[in-house]
Amino acid sequence: MAKAMMQKNMLWLQSGGCGGCTLSLMCAEAPDLLTALELANIRLVSHPSLNQASGTETIKILQDVLDGTLRIDIFCVEGSILFGPNGTGRFHMASGFDNKSMKTLIAEISQVSEYVVAVGSCAAFGGITAGGANEVEARGMAFDDDIAGGLLGKKFLSRAGLPVINISGCPIHPDWVMETLYQIAADSLTPADLDHLGRPRFISNKLVHHGCSRNEYYEFKASAEKLCDLGCMMENLGCKGTQAAGDCNIRPWNGSGSCISGGYPCIACTEPGFEEPGHPFVETPKIAGIPVGLPTDMPKAWFVALASLAKAATPKRLSVNATSDKIAIAPISKKHKGKS
After folding, report:
1. Angle, helix 55-67 to helix 102-111, in steps of 10 degrees
2. Which of 270, 147, 151 is nearest to 201 (CA)?
3. H helices within the chain, ranges in order?
4. Could you give phi then psi for residue 40, rounded to 5 degrees?
5. What is the pLDDT of residues 228-260, one digit of tens each?
């Protein structure tokens, strides 16, 4: 008989962010969030949006964690860590605690937790909150953009011996969180399961480009010119699906879609610094007509040569449909070509 998994206590705190990752997580399907946690034998001790506890009861829970009387196996943080002003953290104070910033509270709980999970790109790398001049001094739990350090420093390891587990995305796909939690619940998550940015490899070993519904257009470089067009959005509309980690087009969101299948280019929200692309999200910067952002690991000379060949071989059907908002020419086999 299989050994039953020991129940794990999970604590979730929100810091400098919009709460969008929680909203996405609550859209989990087959099963829903609470059923999924129950199946994994994970007890949700506290969550700002799902709490039944009052304010004073929640403060008591957090104090028990700090005192060591309540064990926390999984500590999830959503939202970036606010260091401002001038590194004090006083832009975001911990309500109910005597002059303690959220920055300090999160760091203290991290030190006594078995696993520490950064949920979303804000918690992982700073994200949208760190955009612009970053007046609030937003950083991630273990990274500031793509620079190791963040709140907990380069050498941080949780009690389980793992660095911060970064489930990046803006927002996250609910399954990314649940599958990570399943691995933790089964005590099967190891350092080898994380990439150089602390992201679970079951997510980051894939590109958003994989499974894209527009791949045929991409292969022939039949490009869309405006958002309502059907063609590939890489050449003109800023799509970074060939550069961004994620299985977004393989694992449907809400059972059916993704950004690209919904008609919007991938903005690489799982990657550090996505919030500051240096150009409008829906534009592709070019040098001498060649897109600056090329597919991951592809030399520029190869891309130019292959793109030229592909465009020369583009079927009329694809070149016409690429700049249309609906299928103008349907595919037809050669056997039946010209027959009614």
Report:
1. 50
2. 270
3. 20-25, 33-39, 55-67, 102-111, 121-125, 174-185, 201-204, 215-219, 234-237, 300-312, 316-322
4. -85, 0
5. 999 999 999 999 999 999 999 999 888 788 999
* CATH architecture for the domain at 8-204: 3-Layer(aba) Sandwich (3.40)
Cβ atoms of residues 165 and 189 within 8 Å: yes
CA atoms within 13 A on the CB side of 135: 1
Amino acid, res. 140: G
Token pair 């299948």: residue? 261
In the CATH hierarchy, which fold is given to the domain comprising 206-328?
Cytochrome-c3 Hydrogenase; Chain A, domain 2 (4.10.480)
pLDDT digits (tens, 9 = 90+) for 121-170: 999 999 999 999 999 999 999 999 999 999 999 999 999 999 999 999 99
Domain ranges of the chain: 8-204, 206-328
pTM of the predicted model as reported, rounded to 2 decimal places: 0.92
